[in-house]
Each structure stands twice: as structure tokens, then as C-alpha cells.
Amino acid sequence: MSDQPDVLILMTDQHNPYCLGYAGDPIVQTPNIDRLATEGMAFDNAYTVCPVCMPARGCFISGLYPHNHLLWRNYTDKTFPEELAVIFRDIRNAGYYTAQIGKGHYFNPEWGEDFEDYAEYYNNIGFDYFEETTGPYMTPFHKANYTRHLNERGLMDAYQKDLALRFEQGQYIVRPSPLPPDDHNDAFIGRRAVEFIQNAPKDQPICLFVSFPGPHPPLDAPGEYATMYNPDDIDLPSNVVEIAKKNERTDLNELRQMRANYYGKITLIDDWIGKIVQAMTDRGTWDNTLTFFLADHGEHMGAHGKLGKGQFYKESGGIPLVIRWPDHAQSGKHTSALAEHIDVGPTILDAIGGERTEGHYGMSLLPVATGERDEVHDAVFSEIGSGPNGYRHMVCTDRYKWWTDNNRECLFDLEEDPYEMNNIAGERAELCKQMRERLLEFYLATPFDRARDYQPLFTRAGLASDQENIADTLYKMFREFTG
Questions:
Q1: Which of 146, 282, 310, 363 is the most exposed place for a label (fewest CB within 10 A)?
Q2: CB 108 within 8 Å of CB 75
Q3: For residues 54 and 71, is the Cβ–Cβ distance under 8 A?
Q4: CATH number for the domain including 282?
Q5: What is the DSSP string of 403-420?
Q6: Is residue 137 part of a domain?
Q7: DSSP 3-state assignment of 433?
Q8: Structural domains of the chain, count
Q9: Does a structural domain hold residue 191?
Q10: CA dihedral in degrees (181, 186, 192, 198; nearest 10)?
Q11: Which of 17, 42, 22, 5 has its CA nearest to residue 368?
Q12: Does residue 448 sit within a domain?
């Protein structure tokens, strides 16, 4: 077995960062994720650099921001550019066998296409092994191992009928999945991850990226997971209740039912994370595995009167993030250090001694995890665009969060107002100005230099800058071309 650590990345989709036991939620049961936090470090101020699935995932595999790769939304007829997806290639170049199991969402295949036909693409973006699975709503339209599984089990018809009703009634309709728990898409991905670990190379370190589609809606927790939480037991956060009181159409009982089902989906994932950890233990490398638990972005789940994602409130723009690495990362620690989800790749490469491709961003969080430093960011950033509100931007420091939204500025004092209910932008004009200036500094510091491999004309012509008689040399060269 290699002395290099194995690397395990566990990602959920649309996961409200407050909805975890270690994060203080008194109801949801997440003992296996909580164990990761107990044995590692929890980053309580982690953010996605884009609160939308596809751009966020493109950022994750590239170490770029949306303004660098220009993918701003979930719909595109192109694959995420191979040449930009450097993170897992860099990890593979450091000697790792790399694998992705679950939702990648780096492109939208044509209806009826098989993900297996994209094997060359996955290899080119850095994966030796891949098993792509879409989110639930797109599952019937594409071919993948999960769709083959449903067909073999005779479950596809019931699955399609259920999704057709959800398309009609809305993705936040609360109804148990017609699938047995072991056939739910999150369970399928968890099981395939366990099987991969059991058969993974023993003579080479592995980097396994497991990406669960849940707890992203539909609210379709299966079997016992649909009933394990009583909505009446759920105390909704103040930024859900207070906003609901102002909106007479909001039904708090309905929001509790949604959250109960959402909790069920989270616990289903947590159970499979426990089985993945056991598989790594059986492999014999768990005590030397660098593990990350995070999400691509969050979910409002009623906060600020909203459902879904796409905003910079912590419920949507924030993410859970845990780093566990025995004998390296501090254990049982919570840190207020700011983090971005694109920091994961640089942290891995720092830990394994890999070489980073130049011109890509994100910072290693290893100095914070090991206790060497208190922070690596003075501010973190997020952005979203190409919608009815145009381009929107966020700057978040350890105390203040500022963002633009449809030509409106929002500013929150996170120390005095952690649930972001009091917009003080109108009272703090000078601070808003400082945040705008900080945003400009960020953009100036994070260009994507598409000409970064450009060589000056003199260099390409073979002329050193200190070469004597440059004019004579150039004249002779010109004569050669003109005869």
C-alpha cells in the first residue's frame, strides 16, 4: 500500500449548511458526517463561488470562477472545456488513480444519449474511472448505469410516473419516492462507491470523488426515511418564521413538512457515507485518508421566504465543509476561517505534493486545518449571472457580507445579524464603497489569461533581449523571407 494518503471527496447537492448535526441542527440525524467533523475540522464560513449547480461544479474541477470560464447557468449545449478542467488531471499526475461516481453535471447530453459514450471526455478531464448519474429529474432522459439498474429491477415505470407528477405539481411537493430505499439514486451511488473501493488498486493511492444528487429536490425521501422526522417537532429558524409572518400565503406547516422530508434525504446520504467510511476502513487506508465533506451550494428551505438556490444568503450561498486527515488536520475543531469550495483542489495538491497548473485559483486550506495559520482568505467571493437580474456579485469578510441584486445593494453585519435579516446598506455607504473596491481588486487579481502561453514576437523569432545588433539580425531575417 502506498505511503501517500488516499483522498475521498464526499459532495452533496443543494445542502443547506445549517442542516447537519455538527452544525447545530437539533433534529437531523447525521452521525457519520458528524464523526468526520469530530475527527477533523469544520469550516463554518465556507461558501460556493456560484450558488448554481453547473457553474459551481465547473469551478470545482477547474479552480476558476464563473467570470473566468464563462459558464453562468445550468443549461449549455457544450461540455465544460477539457482544457480548463485541471484539478483532477493535476491529482492524477501526482500518481493517483482518480475516480468519479455520481453527479458530475459538467454538460447536458442530448436526450437518449448514454454517459458511457463520453468515456474519452471523462478521461481527458482527469478521471481514470467514472460513473455519471444525473439528478433525478433528468434520469429518464439519459442512459446510465442507474437507468439500467431501474429497468432491470422493473422500477423505471413507477419512477417516471412519479416524476411526471412532480413536473406538474412542483419540485417541492412532499411525497415519498415510489422506489425502495436501496434503489433510490443516492443509495445507488453510495453502493457503487463502496464497490469501487472494494475493487480499487492496492498498489496506487486513489482519489475518489463521490457526488450525491441529494438532498436536492424533489422531496422524495424513500421508505422509512420519509417518515422518520415528525414535522411537528421541527422548530423553524427565525429567518423562516419572521418572513413567513409577513407573507400571509406562506404555510409554516407546509415548510415543516418540506424540511422533514429534506432531513430524511440527508440521513439517507449519511447512512451511505457511513458505509463508504467502513469500506475505506476495510481497505486499510482510513487512518491515512484525506477526506472532504462539502456541497456544491446550499438550499434556502424557506429562509428569507425562498425555496431553492441562486442567492447569497448563507442558506443558499454557504456550504458545509469538513476536512479530516488523521495526524495532520486538527480534530474536533470548528474554525471561522473563510473558505471557498474551489479551495478543495489546491488543498489536496498541497497535501500530496502535487504540482498545480498555473493560472487557476483557490487556496490551500491545509495551513488552517493543521493549525499553522488562522486564515488564508481575508474575503471570499461568489457570483451568478445571465438571468433576469443580470450579473450579481458577493463579497464576504469575517464580519460583513455585501452583494448586489438587481441594482440593489445588500449589506449584513454577520456578527450582529447572523441570519441576515437587517439590510444596513443604506446606513453604511462608506462600507459599501469599500466592498465595491474589494470586488474590483478581486476581479483584477483573478483574470483568466487566455494568452498565458503567449510568447513575445522576439522570443518566437529566437532573439534574446540582450542580443547585439538586433536591427541587423532582423534585417537579414526579413531578407530571407522577401528574397
A1: 282
A2: yes
A3: yes
A4: 3.40.720.10
A5: EEETTEEEEEETTT-TT-
A6: yes
A7: helix
A8: 1
A9: yes
A10: -90
A11: 42
A12: no
pTM score above 0.70: yes
pLDDT-based confidence at 43, cuts 50/70/90?
Answer: very high
Cell of 141: 432522459
What radius of gyration, in Å, describes the C-alpha atoms of the chain? 24
Residue 186, SS3? helix
- Residue 197 domain-assigned (yes or no): yes
Spatial separation of the C-alpha atoms in residues 408 and 374, rounded to whole Å: 33
Cβ-Cβ contacts under 8 Å for 449 (sequence gap 6 or more): 359
Is 381 in contact with 343 (CB distance < 8 Å)?
Answer: no
Q: Which three cell numbers stand for residue 355?
A: 504540482
* Cα–Cα distance list, 36 to 43, 292, 415, 466 (Å): 12, 9, 27, 58
Q: What is the 3-state secondary structure (H, E, C) of 98-145?
A: EEEEECCCCCCCCCCCEHHHHHHHHHHCCCCEEEECCCHHHHHHCECH
Grid cell listed for 66: 464563473
CA dist 303 to 298, 299, 470, Å?
11, 9, 68
